[in-house]
Amino acid sequence: MTETTGPALDRMLCFSLYSASRATTQVYRRLLEPWQLTYPQYLVLVELWDRGPRTVSQLGEGLGLDSGTLSPLLKRLEKAGLVTRTREDADARVVTVAPTERGTALRSEMSELPSQMWNCYGLEPDAARALLAALHSLTATLHADAD
Amino acid sequence: MTETTGPALDRMLCFSLYSASRATTQVYRRLLEPWQLTYPQYLVLVELWDRGPRTVSQLGEGLGLDSGTLSPLLKRLEKAGLVTRTREDADARVVTVAPTERGTALRSEMSELPSQMWNCYGLEPDAARALLAALHSLTATLHADAD
DNA sequence: GCGCAGTGAATTGCGCACAACTGAATTGCG
DNA sequence: CGCAATTCAGTTGTGCGCAATTCACTGCGC
């Protein structure tokens, strides 16, 4: 039988998401420690590896973050020598972010990371797919609510 | 057919959790606005309503937060007149947090909030239960991994 | 009683998130 | 062309998260 009573927080979906999300970033913190990267910084690199050079807006679109979060984060990645930030000639408002050679090299250095994470999750492929789909759908619904 | 390719971030469970979690707190931000409460502050109140006065450690246990997060947060709740913080006579290291009359009154004022959230999620009861269970299990697994 | 390891909360420092704002650059419209 | 509206990145300010440290207090052994 599934619990329908019990601690209030355990019945709140928001709290389950919040807890699960923080639990994953804690695992990432450990895995990313050798590269001195934070989890959001890693996400930016994943996006750059996956899609190539991106403007700040495009990164914001992909990650759901605004310039208030990205600008300082990208500055730190630049300082770490992992990305370059170049203002476009054609439109001087736009800054394009591209991985440096070192930034690109990390892709293969870190290639085991995703499978390490899946091991940590300990989910069957079907369960993983179902959870992924449920979360995408939920996020889409919530973003739609926001209008 | 389910996508097995596509944007890298969309295949990462961590990112789905991160996105979904931020999407829920954004909805909460809007719903909590009338009371000028943040989502973590609301969680503290829920815990106090559910379990009665709690020490800082107990709150930390329940929410998975440490004193570094809770101490300033509780100070803000105290300043807002929603909780009291009293150092125990029996053990002066311990601080007990209790809702004030106003803090308790909020419980009924905000009683519609949970169902409003469930409406936003737009999930069938079965789907909601399944998601909740999957997330609890995942969080437990990840916490176990951390050892 | 005295010292001392251990505990509980608070503080410090850093990096997100996010709202609000700024300022430069561009677009579009008359 | 001229200029107002828009766009893009960056800045500022607040509040988490979390590691590391501090500080007061407790309890234990002697």
Quaternary structure state of the chains depicted: homodimer
Low-confidence stretches of chain A: none
Greatest interface and its residue counts? A-B, 58 and 58 residues
Order of helices and strands of chain A: HHEHHEEHHH
Mind describing the biggest β-sheet of chain A?
3 strands, antiparallel
* Strand content bin of chain A: 5-15%
Give the spatial strand order of the biggest sheet of chain A. 1-3-2
Question: What structural class results from the helix and strand content of chain A?
Answer: mainly alpha
Radius of gyration of chain A: 18 Å
What characteristic shape of chain A results from the CA principal axes? globular
Q: Percent of residues of chain A in helical segments?
A: 55-70%
Number of strands of chain A: 3
Rounded mean pLDDT score of chain A: 95
- Helical region count of chain A? 7
The rounded distance between the terminal residues' Cα atoms of chain A is 38 Å
Explain how this protein is built.
Two copies of one chain form a homodimer. In chain A, 63% of the residues lie in helices and 8% in strands. Chain A has helices spanning 13-32, 39-51, 56-63, 67-79, 101-109, 113-121, 125-145, and strands at residues 54-55, 83-87, 95-99. Chain A has a three-stranded antiparallel beta sheet with strand order 1-3-2. The longest helix of chain A is centred in the last third of the chain and has 21 residues, at 125-145. Chains A and B meet through helix 1, helix 2, helix 6 and helix 7 of A and helix 1, helix 2, helix 6 and helix 7 of B.
